[in-house]
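Here is one chain, start to finish.
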Amino acid sequence: MASITILYGSTTGATEQAAQTLAALLEARALPVAEATEADFDADLLILGSSTWGYGELQDDWAEAIGRLDTLDLTGRKAAVFGTGDQCGFADTFVNAIGILADKLTERGATLIGQVPAADYRHSESLAERDGRFVGLPLDDTNEPDMTPERLSAWADLLRRSL
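Its structure:
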């Protein structure tokens, strides 16, 4: 069985809850990136999660931890990203954080899996959207909390099929 590690940054708890749900669905381990060691980045599938803050910025723990990825060679490894945001209140920066994390992962050689169609969301712009698809899973617990469990379950299935 593939080893799966979920590293996340969460301020209000929404991203942490999503990480814990994903961990249960994927039989993975999840831990805050602020507590992660270098060994925690070593997994067959590395999943990174972050909320988006301010004007499309990484969550504080990731703002400090993203530089740790610069020392990693992720060539040939699979990675996925997810995050929380507010597609109505911050429609022009919706889940930008997962776009930032995805770019860093591909820069380090990882193969991204888990892209989802952007058509199911009501945003105007996002660094996480490429050619009509999000680079990972966006969650909006502010405006669509009832959709989060279904989105997480469907995404976990997608990730399992991509391993």
